[in-house]
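Protein modeling request. Please complete all fields; requests missing the sequence field cannot be processed.
Requester role: graduate student
Desired output: 3D structure, token encoding
Chains: 1
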Amino acid sequence: MNTGIAGAAWVLPLTFALLALSAALILLRLVSGPRAPDRVVAIDALTMIAIAVIALLALSTAQPMLLDAAVVLSLVSFLGTTAFILLFRRRDRGAGETAHAADGRRLAGVAGTGAPPGGEDARNASGSPTGRTDAHENREAVG
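Delivered output (143 residues):
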């Protein structure tokens, strides 16, 4: 039984080279920025490349224990990215500021917005507070 990888003599070195090129380009983004969220995305991308390199090392050296390190690194990367998101959210929104939807409307029922749940802001696209279309409401009123 042959357990070798087809094309491993040229595929693995090519993959390592492409990952190195990707890491160099991401390092350029990390240094140039221009904003802090760009740098966080670059750090996150670098950790994904590190996970890929560890997985390739596990494949090329036939040591499956390295995959455990890749899993741990992915979990730590997720926690770090989540912490940065919370940090940027607090920095961008002050205590007296209200949350707004993408179209500029105030969000209803969100803590700190001052908007009561179920007000005019809670209406759906049809304009109905119940979330039903006008034809459905007319049938209820008649029947």
